Amino acid sequence: MGLVRQIQAGLLDVGYVDAGSADGPAVVLLHGWPYDIHTFAEVSPLLAAAGHRVIVPYLRGYGTTRFLADETVRNGQQSALAVDAIAVMDALGTTEVEDSHVIMISRPDVVADVINTAAGAVSRPVAASPG
Q1: What CATH code is carried by the domain that includes residue 52?
Q2: Which structural domain, as residue segments, surrounds residue 80?
Q3: pLDDT band at 16 (very low <50, low <70, confident <90, very high)
Q4: How far is residue 110 from each of residues 12, 91, 99, 114, measured CA to CA in Å?
Q5: How many domains does the chain have?
Q6: Is 24 exposed, middle or buried (CB count within 10 Å of its CB: 0-12, 13-18, 19+)?
Q7: Who contacts 33 (Cβ-Cβ below 8 Å, separation ≥6)?
């Protein structure tokens, strides 16, 4: 998958892999339970080779992602994951959310709805379900 980096985003210190062109259109790949970033090990290089910036964060409770404060309420609701995704995109400078692609596993419909509502619409959210 590549080097796992860390960035402070919202309530979290997020572990993530960032591959491909920094200037390319962003593709954010979100895993769900019981998966992790390695779910996208085969597709990430293909997207990067096609000119995309591929961002694959560990979601809260996975990998190297940690809460910044001990007193933060632990919440795994889809709305919290969507807010986390937006915080990661903001922290990494993908401020043009409407130009980003978000590919999700685990209740993609709910996460997409929350991101669309919070960010003013993600163009082309893609739902994926592991086989």
Answers
A1: 3.40.50.1820
A2: 5-128
A3: very high
A4: 21, 23, 20, 6
A5: 1
A6: middle
A7: 106
- In this model, does residue 89 exceed pLDDT 70? yes
| Crossing angle of the two packed helices 108-119 and 78-91, in degrees rounded to 10 | 50
Q: Which helix (H) or strand (E) holds 101?
A: strand 101-105
pLDDT in tens, 74-87: 988 878 888 898 89
* Higher per-residue pLDDT: 94 or 55: 55
pTM value?
0.77
2, 33, 44, 82 from 78: Cα distances, Å: 27, 11, 23, 6
